[in-house]
Hints:
Layout lengths: L2 E4 L8 H10 L4 E4 L1 E2 L2 E2 L5 H14 L2 E6 L11 H18 L3 E4 L9 H20 L4 E5 L9 H11 L3 E5 L1 H6 L4 H9 L3 E6 L1 E3 L2 E3 L8 H11 L5 E4 L7 H5 L14 H18 L2
Parallel strand pairs: 1-12, 2-5, 5-6, 6-7, 7-8, 8-9, 9-12
Antiparallel strand pairs: 3-4, 10-11
Helix pairs in contact: 1-2, 3-4, 5-7
Amino acid sequence: MVKLSGFADEISSDFKEQLEGLQANGIEYIEVRGVNGKSISALSREEMDEAKKLLEKYNIKVSAIGSPIGKIKITDDFDEHIKVFENCIFAAEIFGTKYIRMFSFYIPDGDYDKHRFEVIRRLGHLMSMASARSILLCHENEGGIYGESPERCLDLMQYFKGGIKFVFDPANFVVGGHTPYPEAYNNLAEYIEYMHIKDAGDNGIVPAGAGKGCVKEILSDLILNKKFDGFLSVEPHLAIFDGLKEHGGEEHVGAFKYKSRAEAFAAAANALKTILSEIK
């Protein structure tokens, strides 16, 4: 059985309200990204402990640390980024998850070949730090980074030979002008550790199944043929929230309109549940 998780900071900045929102949608896991308005990477030990108490109170478990690691320019200082990464590893240990979601660095001049060696070097260093603490890095395809396209995602997966796994985000491929299924999926399926569930069409991000992400086709093959039983993490992007504003993603919010962030999250969760109910 697959397990449902979600980016609950899209419900509210307040961590307590995030957990209440997950409970209301029958979701037992959270991919922790923002806690009370702060990035998971910036939390102190005391703030982590307080968040953990709330998780225990609401009986919500952590599927992954939704870190911002690798969301800097490849030319930015790496030593400072390592300090941020160390705190993400610490958060993973405190919250009891083996996964850290991460990225492969923005390429400001678009010359991917020129920067490939440095991308590999940095990712290899991060992988070594994580594996020494029994943490598995999971790379997400994201616009503007080295691993934006299916081809460069495959390049990374093949280079690291399973030392870094893949988070498949269909909507990000669509927004980047790539075809999520069958091309991207068929090449990357063996490396998928978990999925981010969001979809996109010509007018931006939409609920799963309403866009060009082929979410049902991908999940059908993963579940029925690959016997996938990992996490499906709901990442709606159907309403403006703090993290989206920070990275300039408002332009991709689609034409679907909701009265609140909580309603938008519920719509995204229900769309996923509908797809799962149709997979037999």
